[in-house]
Amino acid sequence: ISDVHGQFDKMMIALNKANFNPKTDTLVTLGDLFDRGDNSKEVLEYVMSLPNYIPIWGNHDYRLRQLILGLDYAKPYDESNGVPHTLKSFCNMNKSPSIYWGMQILKSDNACRDTYNKLWGYFDRCNWAIEFPNLIGVHAWLPFHITHGATPSDDRYYLNKEWRTDKNNDWGEAVWANTQNMLMHGCYPDKDMIVGHWSAWRIAYVFGNPVVETDESGAIVNNPIIDCNSYIHSFGNNPPVNIIFIDGYSNYEKGGCVNAFVYESDAEPIIYSR
After folding, report:
1. pLDDT at 63
2. Is 181 in a helix, a strand, or coil?
3. Which distant-in-sequence residues (6+ apart) come within 8 Å of 251 by Cβ?
4. Are 82 and 147 in contact (CB under 8 A)?
5. Measured distance CA(34)–CA(43) in Å, rounded
6. φ/ψ (deg, to 5) at 153
7. Does residue 129 sit in helix, strand or coil?
8. Per DSSP, which regions of 8-121 are E strands?
9. Sheet strands (E) in the chain
10. CB of 273 within 8 A of CB of 127?
11. Which pLDDT does position 106 carry in this prediction?
12. How far is CA 248 from CA 6, 32, 52, 96, 256, in A?
């Protein structure tokens, strides 16, 4: 799953639809569990209660860690990205606080201690990506670089050939990747990839391709647990590489959802950690 953004109920609907069994299944979260929605605390507590889960950094999670550590000042986009909603939930407050005030409460109030410790437990387990024999899971994209031209429109984006051994700085930038640029410049890996970050409908609209193929019941072919708010973009050489977008725009009241992608494998995945 990806981009829950504090929508606990929608997350549980997706997991129930997928027949998720905490005792036998592993939950991989592709980032952005928090912000915007009102139930980030419940999302955190549920994920941290699971016996088997693998969290992947999202830009919202990564940014929240930076703010808590005081590595950067709160900016207007932190407000618009919904950080105050997260702090309201974490601190059990009646209204959304300012980011500065909420951070002080979260870090100093004994009533928030358990949530604060769980949050750091989550951060400590976060990874950059997960790789199976025929699928890569990541939040936004893999590490890339830009060759700058005379104007921004002349810039060219390239996937780092040695992304599997890249440093933390490259991965830290990749969680913020502009998905549209990655697709336009053909920055695809050597196997299928599943991502969140940008809502699937937005990608489908920009690139004008049909929504994922569904069967007569409306279920997505070969993976009936993804909601039709998902999108698959195929490009590259033979065979084509499929990029599977599962951000269902969870905070959109008119149809937004959390999507669950079911992947079965006996292989031990490779985890790319910080």
Report:
1. 96
2. helix
3. 5, 6, 7, 36, 37, 82
4. no
5. 8
6. -70, -15
7. strand
8. 27-29, 53-55
9. 27-29, 53-55, 127-132, 135-138, 144-147, 156-159, 192-195, 231-235, 241-245, 270-273
10. yes
11. 96
12. 13, 12, 24, 25, 6
